[in-house]
Amino acid sequence: MVNIYLIIVAVILVLAIVAGSIYILVYFQHPEDKNTAYFPKIIVILSLTLACISILMLPFDVANAQTNGGFPMDILWLVVYIVIAGMVVVVIPFAIFYYEGEEAEGENTQVSSAVKGTIATIIIFGLITVILYLFLGIAEIPVVKLTGNLYTAEPLFLNTTNTTAVTNSTVDNTTGTEELQLAEFYYDFSERFYFEEEDDNTTVITHNSTYYLYNDTVKAVTLSRSSQLLKYRVSIVLYIITMIVFGGWILFIIFGGIGLIAFPFDMIQGFMKRPIPINLQQYTEKKLKIGERANGLLDVAKTIKERMKKGKRSRKDRQNYNRFRQAVFLLEEDYEYIKECYQRQGSKILLAYFQLVLGVLGICLTLLWVLHIILYVFTYPYPFSPFLNSMVIAMDKVFGLFGTIGYGLFSFYLLLCVIKGNFKFGMRMFFLFPIHPMRVGGTMMNAFLFNTLLIMVCAVSITQFCTQAFADYTSSTAINSMFQMSVKNLMGIRYFFQAYVYCLFAMIFITAIFLAIKPADKPAQIVL
């Protein structure tokens, strides 16, 4: 029976997410796109909605497991992730290829270019996925096999809170002893019994105050322990999801690690360097300097455009274009800054202090995440402290929604840091892609599409990370079984999952040092 309360919560949650996605689109969109570009707007709204749902489904999964809500969460997770994979591999790339194309070449050429680019994306992704699936699509779960001989053939029982018989045993007629294969003890057996070593590979289970062997005649059982790998091939659907998770993790390590430092850093910097009143003479002088920079960039733009018309651009041309985009962005920012200094005679007080509050909150959240990684994630499965798990579980016990809010605060902060890290990376590194800034009232659709693609890919990896980081909170969920049992133990990829948290931590540390040495974003030098 499906829990009616969970249905109501799910409906309200989805409606709230859709409303929030529409608000973000309207709040950030450029005036030129106000009554046009409906197709990319639908994609943006759907993408933001799916990304938020994939993150908030985790506490919903927890509630469903705790209350026997009746929702088939394993199926719902697969459906959501299949849709996300389709959006990431097909729909959003088509829209990006279309709106990043040269509009001067005509509508038909843009559509043709977008179709070709999308087909190429599908073929590349499909080939990589199929090849890896054929050779590495096998999960290898480490288990411990216990086999042993009973001193008697009498039935053996395990006394826990409810006495349950062990039935998967076989009798060896030759020796008259019973060989016991304890499949139910494959996991966490060391926490259930007290073991006394007899030799290198033999163990004796003896009486324990909580768990013990119960039989009038059987005093102990001699067991042989052996480590094995339980192997099975995962479904192709799960492997496609794994590829999205893997790609998202690469982006999350880079951009998330940068953003965890850059977000609070830039918020504090924004407050400290907020606009101050200037007079007309100062305004005129600064405006002339900005005009000189603008004229220089116009000359660069003409040169870049001429080279683009000649055909295929070189690597240097692409990097110069990325530098040009960065320089134009900083020029526009500087012009808006001096306008605010003169025309408004300073910054908006509430906005400036709001930046300060966000900066302080960001510092607290970043420090909490760093401490949680050290105390819990690094030392799992025997953590030094449950830390944030204890907080979220305690909030959940007070009222279920409080736990969801606590989890949502930490998870969505990671998503915000990914967006910030991507922007910060684009401002300093020019060899991959141009910046796609999100400006209030000034964000074009191509920037929206690029950032929503990044959000969707990283939302899946953030969910996987939170499943591990909040393992005490999510232990009984369907998504925990999917990620922690199958995805995390896939051949080849499992070695990456053993090291990715250390890579994330290293990126956080490197970014902190880098921003301490070079705190300011400066216009890039363009050498044509």
Give an account of the 3D structure:
- The structure is a single chain.
- The protein is an alpha+beta fold and 528 residues long.
- It has 14 helices and nine strands.
- The strands form two sheets. Strands 4-5-1-9-7-6 form a six-stranded antiparallel β-sheet.
- Helix 2 runs antiparallel to helix 3 (73-100), helix 2 crosses helix 10 (400-428) and helix 5 packs parallel to helix 14 (493-517).
- It is globular.
- The termini are far apart.
- The relative contact order is 0.14.
Query: What distance separates the N and C termini?
Result: 68 Å
Residue share in helices? Answer: 55-70%
Number of separate strands: 9
Q: Round the Cα radius of gyration to an integer and report it.
A: 29 Å
- Low-pLDDT stretches are 150-220
SSE ordering: HHHHEEEEEEEEEHHHHHHHHHH
Major sheet: 6 strands, antiparallel
Strand order, sheet with most strands:
4-5-1-9-7-6
Structural class by secondary-structure content: alpha+beta
Question: What best-fitting shape do the alpha-carbon axes yield?
Answer: globular
Mean pLDDT: 81
Counted by DSSP, the helix tally is: 14
- Classify the beta-strand content into a percent band: 5-15%
